[in-house]
Design brief:
158 residues, mainly alpha
Length: 158
């Protein structure tokens, strides 16, 4: 009993070495998801740095390209972007010459979004970069089947 030190906490007394006990925090699903998201976003920012393209902008361009003429509100809702934030984002993409806003056919007060020719060329290049990045992530996950299982699990949390 000579080794008992009342000044030490129970955790300190039972710690066999000086390693940090982190499993209780790092094993939390939300924590792991956030760390993975930060890692993927950092990778995205590095890959797209030369294009000066952020993840939200890329998603907006992809949706506009795949859904030409859809209203701003529809694209914003699909991505979960608040209206005020989306207006600013769309304005920036328009100022860069990547998209254009035209009055919607069924509601002249609403804006329909379209890619410009420059925007289409820009997005084609961005998609090539993104596909390479995505393939690296799929490989890191263990292949296409693992990717599909992972996406399915994430869908269950959405």
């Amino acid at each position: 009993m000579g080794n008992f030190d009342p000044e030490k906490s129970a955790a300190d007394r039972f710690l066999a070495d000086d390693s940090l006990r982190e499993a209780a925090a790092t094993g939390i699903i939300g924590y792991r998801l956030r760390r993975a998201q930060l890692n993927v976003f950092q990778r995205f920012l590095t890959v797209f740095e030369t294009l000066q393209l952020r993840p939200a902008e890329y998603s907006v361009l992809v949706l506009i390209a795949d859904n030409p003429g859809r209203k701003q509100t529809e694209i914003a809702a699909a991505l979960g972007i608040k209206r005020a934030n989306f207006v600013t984002l769309a304005h920036e993409l328009e100022a860069r010459g990547l998209i254009e806003r035209r009055p919607a056919r069924d509601d002249k007060r609403a804006n329909a979004l379209h890619m410009t020719a420059d925007g289409t060329a820009f997005l084609n290049h961005a998609r090539t970069l993104h596909e390479a990045m995505e393939q690296d992530l799929v490989t890191q996950l263990g292949g296409p089947q693992a990717r599909d299982r992972f996406v399915d699990m994430l869908e269950r949390l959405s």
